[in-house]
Amino acid sequence: MSQLKPLIAGNWKMNGNKSLISEFAQEFNSQAINEIDVLICPPSIYVDELAKQVDAHESVLNVGAQNVSEQASGAFTGEISVDMLKEVKASFAIVGHSERRAIFGESPQLVAQKYKQALVNDITPILCTGETEQEREDDKTFDVIAKDINAVVELAGIESFKNGVIAYEPVWAIGTGKSATPEQAQAVHRFIRGHLAKYDAEVAQGVRILYGGSVNENNAAELFKQNDINGALVGGASLVSDKFMTICNNAQSSK
Ligand code: 13P
Q1: Contact status, residue 235 vs residue 41, Cβ threshold 8 Å
Q2: CA dist., res. 199 & res. 153, Å (int)
Q3: Candidates 3.20.20.70, 3.40.640.10, 3.40.50.980, 3.30.565.10; correct CATH number of 7-253?
Q4: Closest atom of ligand 1 relative to the 215 alpha carbon
Q5: Ligand 1 environment, Cβ below 6 A
């Protein structure tokens, strides 16, 4: 972990309920966590509830969404806008999660629009990128990632990474229990930073790059020892407060 402040983010996907939200808001207080940023992204219907519980319990949790519309408002049934997220006090939005790309057909260009829409409206976007197992076997990992990043640079400029976050999530590691090794993850994170540095070295040094894919309470510490890993985007283990707390503590002590 470099000098950048670690960010540990939980992506609950389509899981969780109000009672889990209240449990997390109570447990993640400033006594427990004080040197890192912690974020929970519940299903969008619970974002408001999470923000209210965070206030009520003076929790350190940041509140985020798992997705956001690239449109400002209008006839887009089922979508949620940045203004709505802001009104309910969300400050982060995940964009381009591999499940959105694979299941809902989101292209790099659409994801770049979502990234920009969030950023210009003061919601910090977390851009997810990562290769499938086949793409890794075919030696296409860096191409896939460069394509996702380039789409954002083309639309929003390299400066857009000053206030954004990148999450490297190899598709083969998501929900499989088969995390990338610390060395595999570090190699890709270094590639991402190097790729950004071709546009702007300072921006590249300042961007937080999270690793996601079967991060748990047992493998987090080793991942956080890597130079270019600045935190984690956690799925399954972010639904269990003890496990998520252990991951956060590992990030704190790796600083
Ligand atoms: P798991 O931690 O369950 O593998 O999920 C990772 C993920 O997709 C987080 O966005």
Answers
A1: no
A2: 9
A3: 3.20.20.70
A4: 2
A5: 11, 97, 169, 174-175, 212-215, 233-237
pTM score = 0.98
CA 12/CA 140 separation, integer angstroms:
29
Residue identified by tokens 């639904």 is 239
Minimum-distance ligand 1 atom for the alpha carbon of 176: 4
Tokens representing residue 19 in the block? 């009672």
Amino acid identity of 53?
Q
Of the residues 97, 99, 131, 217, only one is catalytic, namely 97
Contact yes or no for 37/6 (Cβ under 8 A): yes
Instruction: Tell me which residues of the chain have a pLDDT lower than 50.
Output: none
Catalytic position from the list 106, 169, 189, 217: 169
Q: Name the residue ranges covered by the structural domains of the chain.
A: 7-253
The partner residues of 126 in beta bridges, in order of sequence, read: 94, 165
Q: Which residue has the tokens 């937080």?
A: 208
Instruction: Give the rounded distance of the alpha carbon of 152 from its chain centre.
Output: 16
pLDDT digits (tens, 9 = 90+) for 54-102: 999 999 999 999 999 999 999 999 999 999 999 999 999 999 999 999 9
Candidates 129, 131, 234, 243: which one to mutate for ligand 1, based on the most atoms within 8 Å of Cβ?
234
Distance 74 CA to ligand 1 centre (A): 32
Phi and psi for 64 in degrees, rounded to 5? -140, 170
Please, which residues bridge with residue 63 across strands?
40
Burial class (CB in 10 A: 0-12, 13-18, 19+), 103: exposed
Q: How far is the CA of 190 from the centre of ligand 1 (A)?
A: 21
97 counts as catalytic: yes
